[in-house]
Recover the amino acids of this structure.
């Protein structure tokens, strides 16, 4: 069993995915900016190696892929941004930054790791999981930048699912609002958080373990016949309405 390479490994969803994969006995290689947090999480999880770096540095991807080893069972790109501004306040450089972190980063991560993912597939498959958002499928105000960037991620996932078949499966997970540090600007105010929670058929916000459990499943052999899918972990937000 090869390692699973996780970008954003110390973030809320990245760390939850790491814990879920270790529960399945996968060895890991985690990538994140904060070396101290990486080392602490690796010590907690066991059988985990790390690379510290920023996904804005294109050299990071080759370095992380090499450090993770020549055979990978999977890759998870759990990196994202939340930049919510109306059309009139968005600047081109902000949109470019969101695209670079979310979409270009995902592309570079898979490109660098593809040989190891092919080697790790053996006679079966390896699994790649990218992260989108419910905002791609739904029209939310002030979400232009993140929806554009994550829409590109969904297009990338479908393209790579075709191009890298049959040995590498590629899927995307599309969460709704989840209680992570990245989303604290939206979830810290409980009145606002409860209002958003009430818009979901399952009337709560997500927790990292919701998305992490699905990501770990999609990496695993249990999902061996699943590829080219965008799967919502969203309390029904993308498909179900209980009011009006």
């Amino acid at each position: 069993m090869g390692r699973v390479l996780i970008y954003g490994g110390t973030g809320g969803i990245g760390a939850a995915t790491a814990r879920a994969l270790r529960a399945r006995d996968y060895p890991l290689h985690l990538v994140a900016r904060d070396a101290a947090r990486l080392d602490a999480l690796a010590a907690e999880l066991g059988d985990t190696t790390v690379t510290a770096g920023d996904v804005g540095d294109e050299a990071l991807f080759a370095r992380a892929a090499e450090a993770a080893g020549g055979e990978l069972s999977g890759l998870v790109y759990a990196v994202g941004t939340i930049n919510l501004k109306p059309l009139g306040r968005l600047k081109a450089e902000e949109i470019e930054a969101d695209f670079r972190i979310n979409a270009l980063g995902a592309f570079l991560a898979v490109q660098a790791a593809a040989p190891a993912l092919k080697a790790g597939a053996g006679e079966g498959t390896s699994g790649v999981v990218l992260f989108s958002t419910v905002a791609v499928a739904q029209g939310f105000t002030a979400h232009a930048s993140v929806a554009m960037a994550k829409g590109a991620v969904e297009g990338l996932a479908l393209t790579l699912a075709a191009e890298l078949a049959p040995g590498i499966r590629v899927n995307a997970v599309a969460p709704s609002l989840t209680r992570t540090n990245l989303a604290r600007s939206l979830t810290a105010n409980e009145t606002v958080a409860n209002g958003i929670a009430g818009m979901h058929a399952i009337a709560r916000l997500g927790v990292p373990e919701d998305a992490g459990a699905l990501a770990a499943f999609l990496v695993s052999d249990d999902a061996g016949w699943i590829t080219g899918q965008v799967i919502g972990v969203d309390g029904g937000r993308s498909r179900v309405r209980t009011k009006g």
Observations:
- Residues 52 and 159 are 29 Å apart (CA to CA).
